[in-house]
Design brief:
This is Aldehyde dehydrogenase family protein. Residues 25-467 form the Aldehyde dehydrogenase domain. Pfam families: Aldedh (PF00171). Keywords: Oxidoreductase. By secondary structure, this protein is α/β, with parallel strands linked by helices. It has helices spanning 11-17, 44-63, 65-82, 84-95, 104-120, 155-168, 182-193, 208-216, 229-239, 264-276, 296-309, 328-343, 376-379, 395-403, 418-425, 460-466; strands spanning 25-28, 35-39, 126-131, 134-142, 145-149, 172-176, 201-203, 222-226, 245-249, 254-258, 286-292, 347-350, 366-369, 386-392, 407-408, 410-414, 432-435, 450-451, 454-455, 468-474. The strands form 5 sheets. The chain has a 7-stranded mixed sheet with strand order 12-13-14-11-10-16-17, sandwiched between helices. A 6-stranded mixed sheet has the order 7-6-5-8-9-19, sandwiched between helices. Helix 3 packs across helix 7. The longest helix has 20 residues, at 44-63. The termini are far apart.
Length: 475
């Protein structure tokens, strides 16, 4: 964020979007379990009205042209920055992530960054043929109305990943936030709508059936969804009737491979945050780590020390950088997977249990060594603060292990020998493979998964193309 924030208290922003007193659905603080506010419970009729308004507004919005739309998106980025602190505080309370570290303030700042990137990325016509045989060019037109269905782990940032390129390309957008984190998304939409024309962006807060209705709506031309693979399959089924185009960023179980000869101390911090960013609640987080036998114990020890020493607690405390699990269902999944790994002989070297003194949904940052493929903590996406570390002695075996699951969102290779790392990276089945890092994203670098982790690209030029329809003009 550039410059000082102008607004500090989240209450006025919350009051703009929450349901009237005595109405709506209670949204609880992830850390304290106190009531943050009351989310409106929109219905199928509300969804129909929002889609109808978006459809009506779309031709005029597209007619403004790229230059004017981009200017409005830049104004929207300024508006996000002006409301950065109240948005971050509301996000911290509702989602649980701390203000500091790669968390709430970071997420709000990323919203402004991605808005500006979408606004300023050129997408020129592609000349296909220009010779004596004729002239043909490929251009990209708005797809129409985009339905954006978001998750609860990075609700604002992923929301902007869906909203910003869609608006830039001349589409209108109807957003359906997760039922776990609706207030912060409604608040962000309110800030954006202070800048945007009426009808261009709407947020509809409801239960899962509203999301299903959005995916199946006959007047929705494109659906963008980030969430679990199981729900992604339902989105595909729901969209079959209207043949809406799809971008699906689905679950991941990202593998990291540490090659022999790597200095454990040199990579420990980046390994830790690759796994524990947002307390592990990130689709493209490092979720299973394969370490060569010669440095295995040293890597485990370094990670354990970081897990034990990284401050965890209420996100509004400026000292904390790890928070709670966002909801009880996810907390139960993490606890069950760690308990199961322990019973199967896994060696818990850090954490390994709840932190009830911090609150009911806090689970200690956990490192589990001496587990293997086939253990549920390795094979299933834990989506929380628990990292299994698996020993290997042959790189070919580690690659085979990394590729054996139906997830292919991200992966990473760690080595001081960049050529060796690139060679291994080329063999991994993942949409993105990072070297000596994990999960880092750039607004100009396309991102998307393979296999059960979905399809379609976001960010940069490819992301703009994904929310448009190609048209060839020939002659």
């Amino acid at each position: 964020m550039s410059g000082p924030t102008q607004l500090l208290d989240e209450s006025p922003l919350l009051d703009r979007v929450q349901a009237p007193a005595g109405q709506g659905r209670e949204i609880l603080d992830a850390a304290t379990r106190e009531v943050v506010g009351h989310a409106p419970v929109h219905t199928a009729a509300d969804l129909d009205a929002a889609v109808a308004a978006a459809k009506a507004a779309q031709p005029a919005w597209a007619g403004l042209g790229h230059e004017r739309r981009s200017a409005l998106l830049l104004e929207a980025a300024d508006a996000i920055e002006a409301h950065a602190e109240p948005l971050a505080r509301l996000l911290s309370r509702e989602q649980g992530k701390p203000l500091n570290g790669p968390n709430a303030r970071f997420e709000v700042g990323a919203c402004a960054t991605w808005l500006r990137a979408a606004a300023t990325t050129p997408l020129e016509p592609e000349i296909l043929v220009d010779d004596e045989t004729g002239h043909a060019e490929l251009v990209y037109r708005p797809v129409g109305v985009v339905g954006a269905i978001g998750p609860w782990n990075w609700p604002l940032m992923i929301g902007i990943w869906q909203i910003a390129p869609s608006l830039r390309m001349g589409n209108t957008v109807v957003v359906k936030p997760s039922e776990h984190t609706p207030l912060s998304v409604l608040a962000m939409a309110a800030v954006l709508n202070d800048v945007l024309p009426d009808g261009v962006l709407a947020a509809v807060s409801g239960e899962r059936e509203v999301g299903a209705g959005l995916a199946a709506h006959p007047d929705v031309d494109k659906v963008m969804f980030t969430g679990s693979t199981a729900t992604g399959r339902k989105i595909v089924e729901a969209s079959a009737g209207n043949l809406a185009r799809l971008t699906l960023e689905l679950g991941g179980n990202d593998a990291g491979i540490v090659l022999p000869g790597t200095d454990p101390k040199a990579i420990a911090q980046d390994l830790f945050w690759g796994a524990f960013i947002n307390t592990g609640q990130t689709c493209a987080a490092l979720k299973r780590l394969y370490v060569h036998d010669e440095i295995y114990e040293d890597v485990v020890a370094e990670l354990a020390a970081l897990a034990e020493g990284t401050p965890m607690g209420n996100g509004l405390d400026e000292d904390n950088v790890l928070g709670p699990l966002q909801n009880a269902q996810q907390y139960d999944i993490v606890r069950s997977l760690v308990d199961d790994a322990r019973e199967r002989g896994g060696r818990v070297v850090a954490g390994g249990g709840p932190a009830p003194e911090l609150g009911p949904l806090f689970y200690r940052a956990t490192i589990v060594a001496d587990v293997a493929d086939g253990v549920p903590l390795v094979d299933e996406e834990q989506f929380g603060p628990a990292l299994p570390v698996i020993r290997y002695s042959d790189v070919d075996d580690a690659v085979a292990s990394a590729n054996r699951l139906d997830a292919g969102l991200g992966a990473s290779v760690w080595s001081a020998d960049r050529d060796a790392a690139r060679e291994v990276a080329a063999r991994l089945q993942a949409g993105t493979v990072w070297i000596n890092g994990h999960g880092g994203l750039h607004p100009m670098v396309p991102f998307g998964g393979v296999k059960g982790s979905g399809y379609g690209l976001e960010f940069g030029i490819e992301g703009l193309k994904s929310v448009a329809v190609p048209q060839v003009i020939s002659g």
